[in-house]
């Protein structure tokens, strides 16, 4: 029973990471109806810039426990936010009338470019890098079940960030503008909403979430690798699609669903844990057959 | 069709063949760069001047004999370089990737069915060849079987693809590509990450591992694979071209451009999508089987998601739906990274930047597909 709770808990930490990535995909899809596949590699970039900022702090002798975490998160968010907005400005907004497939392929290639750049230009970047333990890994016992303290903090942090994003979208003027652009870009523009600024702000916001997810990934696994972004990007995309593109809650449900599928497989077939991803992706394909537009379907009607 | 048009077109084709040969042989970095610049200049000339339109119309409107230019050029290059193992292997790789891209063009270029799992179907063909090779089945049958198995597995995947559209359909093929790779990595009967050994092909009792010998003429055994790939490529090319010109091609165009409009006019959208997906996967599977036989060895790392992207990049860089553009694009994508060893480590980065720039500034590809001249086709 105790071991089951531990699996459940670890699945929840994975789920919150996937959900953070998926929320980014769903935000981008909301405002421009595009898939920005460089998202996963932007996440890697966030983790690496967090690592660099920590090394800088260390050389200054300022690596205090809480300050370190805050600075690393801030650095990751700023870098990923800026890169996300830059990609939007330089490549996606000028191409927004091109076919969705072209944008998908182009952003995949931008992601490949980022990944290769990290591998080549970060010192010894082809090997996994140790990520600093910004949070204590002390085990905590609750009712006979052991949890790692850092995982509890990460889970709380993830939920906090998602609730904050939801508040931002639902209850602020920026969020109102984002929702207006998502519903109908042209009408929003006619109402005086600066379309381009809002799109770029959305890109920055979504990418900053990926930055946080990257740092969380680094802390959770204690290492970071240049190629982690590809799989996380695809998982985040699957989560967003299964939940229903354009819906934040759909993305969160999708993220937890994916983590649950992986965990379920490992719990039921511990000997064949290598087939974890095969099972999860098969389940995703079957789920898509049942709900072709995701669990929370996009509300739209087709005009002929 | 005027004689002058034919001569100019033939001259352009000859220059193209010559350039291909030079790019393949050149070992000096400057020679490679020079040949690439010449190719770029040629493509700009073709895009801007009348000669390009003349060439396009000759290639598109003449009957199927014009496709025989490909085996002609290939045989000339192949026999001219008959001793260079590496060069011939690259030429065969270009043809095999080109063959897979013919399949992708039928799926995505003609019918608009997206497939991000090209490398997975390529791998299905390859693994089929590896498993059947142990039983002593004739090689040509094995190649066909590779195509059949790929098409059969594609028949299962088409069900979710038909129910979804746009990005949702893209996800299904991406997920399939990834799960195929993970499956190979952990499945021990298929060799796991180490992969499988594949029997080389033999045609009419003659093993393709023995080079052709005619008196003083001794060729590398890769020449055999160049000829095999060239043969299959030409057959599939002509069939695909006929498909495009026929009423089936008109149905594909209608389904791609406007599915709702097509269904209003009584075109069975699902039927044509299945048709394109199955035919395309068959061709990709053929290519995979030939690739496995040539390599003599396959592993999951041959069939990654990036390989699917490379195939899609070829058809998009060339010009979506333009069969002729596959060959120059495949040469660019397959040969250039091997040749520019100077940039070595940086080649994937350079390649990614190149694709991004082409998509950004020339979204319809280097040689866009010509509009269908429906009236003239009907008159024929």
Automatic annotation (TrEMBL), chain A:
<dbReference type="GO" id="GO:0005304">
    <property type="term" value="F:L-valine transmembrane transporter activity"/>
</dbReference>
<keyword id="KW-0029">Amino-acid transport</keyword>
<dbReference type="Pfam" id="PF02653">
    <property type="entry name" value="BPD_transp_2"/>
</dbReference>
<protein>
    <submittedName>
        <fullName>Branched-chain amino acid transport system permease protein</fullName>
    </submittedName>
</protein>
<dbReference type="InterPro" id="IPR052157">
    <property type="entry name" value="BCAA_transport_permease"/>
</dbReference>
<feature type="transmembrane region" description="Helical">
    <location>
        <begin position="12"/>
        <end position="35"/>
    </location>
</feature>
<feature type="transmembrane region" description="Helical">
    <location>
        <begin position="198"/>
        <end position="220"/>
    </location>
</feature>
<keyword id="KW-0812">Transmembrane</keyword>
<keyword id="KW-0472">Membrane</keyword>
<keyword id="KW-0997">Cell inner membrane</keyword>
<keyword id="KW-1133">Transmembrane helix</keyword>
<dbReference type="GO" id="GO:1903806">
    <property type="term" value="P:L-isoleucine import across plasma membrane"/>
</dbReference>
<dbReference type="GO" id="GO:0015808">
    <property type="term" value="P:L-alanine transport"/>
</dbReference>
<feature type="transmembrane region" description="Helical">
    <location>
        <begin position="66"/>
        <end position="88"/>
    </location>
</feature>
<feature type="transmembrane region" description="Helical">
    <location>
        <begin position="252"/>
        <end position="272"/>
    </location>
</feature>
<feature type="transmembrane region" description="Helical">
    <location>
        <begin position="226"/>
        <end position="245"/>
    </location>
</feature>
<dbReference type="GO" id="GO:0005886">
    <property type="term" value="C:plasma membrane"/>
</dbReference>
<feature type="transmembrane region" description="Helical">
    <location>
        <begin position="278"/>
        <end position="297"/>
    </location>
</feature>
<dbReference type="GO" id="GO:0042941">
    <property type="term" value="P:D-alanine transmembrane transport"/>
</dbReference>
<keyword id="KW-0813">Transport</keyword>
<comment type="similarity">
    <text>Belongs to the binding-protein-dependent transport system permease family. LivHM subfamily.</text>
</comment>
<dbReference type="GO" id="GO:0015190">
    <property type="term" value="F:L-leucine transmembrane transporter activity"/>
</dbReference>
Automatic annotation (TrEMBL), chain B:
<keyword id="KW-1003">Cell membrane</keyword>
<keyword id="KW-0812">Transmembrane</keyword>
<keyword id="KW-1133">Transmembrane helix</keyword>
<feature type="transmembrane region" description="Helical">
    <location>
        <begin position="87"/>
        <end position="106"/>
    </location>
</feature>
<dbReference type="Pfam" id="PF02653">
    <property type="entry name" value="BPD_transp_2"/>
</dbReference>
<feature type="transmembrane region" description="Helical">
    <location>
        <begin position="113"/>
        <end position="133"/>
    </location>
</feature>
<dbReference type="InterPro" id="IPR001851">
    <property type="entry name" value="ABC_transp_permease"/>
</dbReference>
<dbReference type="GO" id="GO:0015658">
    <property type="term" value="F:branched-chain amino acid transmembrane transporter activity"/>
</dbReference>
<feature type="transmembrane region" description="Helical">
    <location>
        <begin position="32"/>
        <end position="51"/>
    </location>
</feature>
<keyword id="KW-0472">Membrane</keyword>
<feature type="transmembrane region" description="Helical">
    <location>
        <begin position="346"/>
        <end position="363"/>
    </location>
</feature>
<dbReference type="GO" id="GO:0005886">
    <property type="term" value="C:plasma membrane"/>
</dbReference>
<feature type="transmembrane region" description="Helical">
    <location>
        <begin position="63"/>
        <end position="81"/>
    </location>
</feature>
<feature type="transmembrane region" description="Helical">
    <location>
        <begin position="139"/>
        <end position="159"/>
    </location>
</feature>
<protein>
    <submittedName>
        <fullName>ABC-type branched-subunit amino acid transport system permease subunit</fullName>
    </submittedName>
</protein>
<dbReference type="InterPro" id="IPR043428">
    <property type="entry name" value="LivM-like"/>
</dbReference>
<feature type="transmembrane region" description="Helical">
    <location>
        <begin position="166"/>
        <end position="184"/>
    </location>
</feature>
<feature type="transmembrane region" description="Helical">
    <location>
        <begin position="274"/>
        <end position="298"/>
    </location>
</feature>
<feature type="transmembrane region" description="Helical">
    <location>
        <begin position="7"/>
        <end position="26"/>
    </location>
</feature>
<feature type="transmembrane region" description="Helical">
    <location>
        <begin position="222"/>
        <end position="240"/>
    </location>
</feature>
<feature type="transmembrane region" description="Helical">
    <location>
        <begin position="310"/>
        <end position="334"/>
    </location>
</feature>
């Amino acid at each position: 029973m105790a071991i089951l709770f531990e699996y459940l808990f670890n699945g929840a930490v994975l789920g919150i990471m996937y959900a953070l990535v998926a929320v980014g995909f769903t935000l981008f899809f909301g405002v421009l109806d595009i898939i920005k596949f460089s998202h996963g590699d932007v996440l890697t970039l966030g983790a690496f810039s967090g690592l660099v900022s920590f090394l800088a702090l260390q050389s200054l002798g300022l690596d205090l426990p809480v300050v370190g975490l805050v600075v690393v998160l801030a650095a990751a968010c700023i870098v990923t936010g800026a890169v996300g907005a830059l990609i939007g400005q330089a490549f996606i907004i000028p191409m927004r009338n091109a076919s969705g497939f072209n944008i998908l392929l182009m952003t995949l290639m931008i992601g490949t470019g980022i990944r290769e750049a990290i591998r080549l230009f970060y010192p010894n970047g082809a090997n996994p890098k140790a990520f600093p333990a910004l949070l204590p890994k002390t085990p905590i016992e609750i009712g006979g079940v052991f949890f790692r303290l850092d995982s509890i903090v990460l889970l709380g942090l993830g939920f906090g960030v998602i609730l904050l994003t939801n508040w931002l979208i639902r209850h602020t003027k920026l969020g109102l503008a984002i929702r207006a652009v998502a519903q109908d870009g042209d009408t929003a523009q006619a109402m005086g909403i600066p379309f381009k600024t809002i799109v770029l702000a959305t890109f920055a916001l979504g990418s900053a979430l990926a930055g946080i997810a990257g740092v969380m990934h680094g802390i959770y696994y204690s290492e970071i690798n240049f190629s982690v972004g590809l799989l996380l990007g695809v998982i985040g995309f699957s989560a967003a699609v299964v939940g229903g593109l354009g819906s934040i809650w759909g993305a969160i449900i999708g993220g937890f669903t994916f983590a649950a599928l992986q965990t379920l497989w490992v719990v039921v077939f511990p000997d064949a844990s290598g087939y974890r991803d095969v099972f999860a992706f098969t389940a995703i394909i079957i789920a898509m057959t049942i709900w072709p537009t995701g669990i929370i379907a996009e509300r739209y009607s087709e005009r002929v | 069709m005027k004689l002058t048009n034919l001569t100019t077109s033939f001259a352009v084709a000859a220059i193209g063949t010559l350039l291909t040969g030079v790019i393949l042989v050149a070992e000096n970095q400057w020679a490679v760069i020079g040949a690439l610049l010449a190719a770029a200049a040629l493509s700009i000339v073709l895009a801007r001047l009348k000669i390009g339109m003349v060439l396009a119309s000759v290639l598109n409107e003449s009957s199927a004999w014009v496709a025989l230019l490909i085996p002609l050029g290939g045989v000339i290059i192949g026999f001219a370089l008959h001793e260079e193992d590496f060069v011939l292997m690259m030429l065969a790789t270009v043809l095999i990737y080109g063959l897979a891209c013919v399949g992708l063009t039928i799926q995505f270029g003609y019918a608009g069915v997206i497939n991000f799992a090209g490398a997975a179907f390529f791998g299905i063909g390859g693994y089929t060849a590896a498993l059947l090779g142990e039983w002593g089945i004739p090689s040509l049958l094995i190649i066909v079987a590779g195509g059949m198995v790929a098409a059969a597995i594609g028949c299962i995947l088409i069900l979710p693809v038909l129910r979804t559209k746009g990005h949702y359909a893209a996800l299904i093929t991406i997920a399939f590509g990834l799960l195929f790779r993970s499956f190979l990595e952990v499945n021990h009967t298929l060799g796991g990450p180490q992969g499988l050994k594949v029997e080389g092909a033999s045609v009419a009792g003659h093993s393709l591992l023995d080079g052709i010998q005619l008196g003083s003429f001794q060729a590398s055994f890769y020449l055999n694979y160049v000829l095999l790939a060239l043969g299959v490529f030409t057959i599939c090319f002509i069939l695909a071209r006929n498909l495009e010109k026929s009423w089936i091609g008109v149905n594909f165009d209608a389904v791609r451009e406007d599915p709702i409009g097509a269904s209003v006019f009584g075109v069975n959208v699902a039927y044509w999508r299945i048709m394109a997906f199955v035919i395309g996967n068959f061709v990709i599977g053929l290519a995979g089987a030939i690739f496995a036989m040539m390599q003599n060895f396959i592993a999951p790392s041959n069939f990654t998601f990036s390989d699917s992207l490379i195939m899609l990049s070829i058809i998009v860089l060339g010009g979506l739906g333009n069969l002729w553009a596959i060959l120059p694009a495949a040469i660019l994508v397959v040969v250039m990274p091997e040749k520019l060893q100077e940039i070595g480590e940086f080649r994937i980065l350079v390649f990614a930047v190149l694709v991004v720039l082409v998509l950004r500034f020339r979204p319809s590809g280097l040689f866009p597909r010509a509009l269908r001249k429906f009236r003239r086709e009907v008159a024929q």
